[in-house]
Design a protein that fits this description.
The chain has helices at residues 4-21, 62-73, 92-105, 150-161, 206-213, 216-229, 233-245, 284-287, 291-306; strands at 28-30, 46-56, 78-85, 112-116, 136-143, 146-148, 168-169, 172-178, 183-187, 195-196, 200-204, 250-251, 257-259, 327-330, 333-336. By secondary structure, it is α/β, with parallel strands linked by helices. The protein has one domain (23-306): Alpha-Beta Complex (Spore Coat Polysaccharide Biosynthesis Protein SpsA, Chain A).
C-alpha cells in the first residue's frame, strides 16, 4: 500500500501544476480594485520625463502597437510606457505573446508594461495608476496608431512644463454654437480650438484622479454618457481640465507625425488581420459616419449635466523654431532665403 505521506505530496504537486497551468502571465498586470484610494507619491515623482499611456484594443493592431510602444520607450523623454488593454475578450495567449514581445523590445529602453482593463469602457483610459507604474508628474495619453519623433515629444514636454494646468497636444478640434438650432456642435475651426484629442496629449497626472474619482454625481453621470455613447472620453477630459485650470489647451507643432488610423489615409492599411479589420477600420471615427454628430451630442450632454460650459478657445500653435519666410533666388531657383541650395 502506498505511503500516505507520499500520496499527500503527490496530490499537492498535482494541485500546484494544475494551478500554474491556469495562472495568467505575471507580466500582464491588472487594474487595481480601488484605484481612487491609491496613494499619491507626488514628492518623489519625476519632472524631467513623462509616462506614456497607450490605449490598445484590437489584435489586428498589435504589430503596429509593438512598433509604436518600442519607439516611445527609446525616447529620452519617456520614463515608462503602459499599454492599457481595453478588450476583455482578447484570448489570454494573445496577451501573453504580446507581453513576451514587449519584454524583448524594452530590454535596453524604458520599461513597457501591459495592463489588462476589466472592461472595454473608454473611461478606463484615465484610471489612476499605482505609483510603481506612474513615476512622473506628466502623463502622455495616446492612441495605438499614432507615431511621433523623439524630438517632438521632448518639445511637447517642455511646452507642458510651462502650462501644467492645461492640455498640450498635436490634434485640435473645437466646440461651437449652431445659430439655427441654438445647440452646441463639434467642429474644426481654422483659427481657434478648444478641444485637444487624446491621439497625443500631455497633462498632469492629478487629472487622472479628477476625471475618474472627482466631481461627485455630476461626473459619474457624465462618465455614464461616455459608456452609453462609446465615445467622447477625450471631450470630457477637456471639460475637466478647462474647469480646473481655467484655460484652453495648447497646440504644439511636431516634425514627424504619422497617424495610421486617420480615415483620410488612402486605402486600408492592414497590419495583421482579424476578421478583415485593418488599421484604419477599427478607429471610432472611421467606423461611424455620424461621428461628428455624436460628439456634438456629447458636448450638449456634458453641458447639461455639469450646468456650465468650461471649454475655452485657444489660438495659434507653439512651434520649435521659426525660419525665414522670404523668397530668394539661389542656384537659379526661388527658395526660402534661409534654405541652402547645393551648387
Amino acid at each position: 500500500m502506498p505511503n500516505p505521506l507520499f500520496l499527500l505530496l503527490l496530490l499537492l504537486l498535482l494541485l500546484l501544476l494544475t494551478t500554474a497551468a491556469f495562472t495568467v502571465n505575471p507580466s500582464i498586470l491588472s487594474s487595481p480594485p480601488n484605484p481612487c484610494s491609491l496613494p499619491n507619491p507626488l514628492p518623489t515623482a519625476r519632472s524631467d520625463q513623462l509616462t506614456v499611456l497607450i490605449n490598445g484594443y484590437s489584435s489586428s493592431r498589435i504589430p503596429l502597437l509593438l512598433s509604436i510602444a518600442t519607439a516611445y520607450s527609446v525616447s529620452p523623454s519617456v520614463a515608462s510606457v503602459v499599454i492599457l488593454w481595453g478588450n476583455p475578450n482578447t484570448p489570454a495567449q494573445t496577451l501573453t505573446l504580446l507581453s513576451q514581445n514587449l519584454s524583448l523590445s524594452s530590454s535596453s529602453a524604458a520599461p513597457i508594461s501591459l495592463l489588462r482593463q476589466p472592461s472595454d469602457s473608454l473611461n478606463l483610459r484615465f484610471l489612476p495608476l499605482p505609483p510603481s507604474l506612474l513615476t512622473t508628474h506628466a502623463v502622455l495619453v495616446c492612441d495605438d496608431d499614432v507615431s511621433i519623433d523623439s524630438k517632438s515629444i521632448e518639445f511637447a514636454l517642455k511646452v507642458w512644463k510651462q502650462n501644467r494646468d492645461r492640455l498640450v497636444g498635436l490634434f485640435a478640434r473645437s466646440h461651437d454654437i449652431d445659430l439655427d438650432s441654438k445647440t452646441w456642435i463639434y467642429t474644426v475651426h481654422p483659427d481657434k480650438y478648444s478641444i485637444m484629442l487624446t491621439k497625443f496629449v500631455i497633462f498632469k497626472r492629478e487629472f487622472l484622479y479628477e476625471y475618474s474619482c472627482g466631481g461627485g454625481k455630476e461626473m459619474e453621470e457624465a462618465r455614464g454618457v461616455v459608456d452609453r455613447m462609446r465615445n467622447c472620453e477625450d471631450i470630457l477630459m477637456n471639460f475637466v481640465v478647462a474647469e480646473e485650470g481655467g484655460g484652453g489647451p495648447v497646440l504644439v507643432g511636431a516634425e514627424k507625425v504619422r497617424d495610421w488610423g486617420d480615415a483620410r489615409n488612402e486605402g486600408v492599411v492592414v497590419v495583421g488581420e482579424e476578421e478583415g479589420e485593418g488599421v484604419t477600420e477599427v478607429g471610432l471615427s472611421s467606423r461611424r459616419r455620424d461621428h461628428r454628430k455624436r460628439r456634438g451630442e456629447c458636448i450638449r450632454e456634458f453641458h447639461r449635466i455639469l450646468g456650465r460650459m468650461p471649454l475655452r478657445y485657444s489660438y495659434g500653435k507653439v512651434v520649435n523654431s521659426v525660419g525665414e519666410q522670404g523668397l530668394c533666388e539661389k542656384g537659379g531657383k526661388l527658395v526660402f532665403c534661409d534654405q541652402q541650395v547645393a551648387e
